[in-house]
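(Deposited chain)
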Amino acid sequence: MDFRLKVFIAVAKHLSFTQASKELHISQPAITKHIQELENSYNTQLFSRQKGKISLTRQGLLFLEHATKIVEGYAILEQQMQIHAGELEGSVQIAASNGNIHNLMEPYLKAFAEKYPQIAITLTTEDTE
């Protein structure tokens, strides 16, 4: 996947190159470079820069819509590939305040456990105030 899409989405989310660089753990100049490369590639301005503040242009809003779909598609693809390769593993922790929830959740948790045996499931029920 094109990392520049993640950079663009982070900048669009924060409307800040600095915050995007913190989120992605890369330098601010690298963020700027990636955005400039995207703008040059598509021959358009994705952000409007005025008085130290940025906002998305009309083209930027359109780009954000499609970039988000592309990144989500890659995440789904990666997950599906891991499932088919048997590499998906980890744990799921579910907490509920009502003991009856265990009975309601049991068929779903059983089906999940059968589909993903390498993922540990923990269900905790406790009364809350």
Notes: Helices lie at 3-14, 17-24, 28-41, 58-85, 100-115.
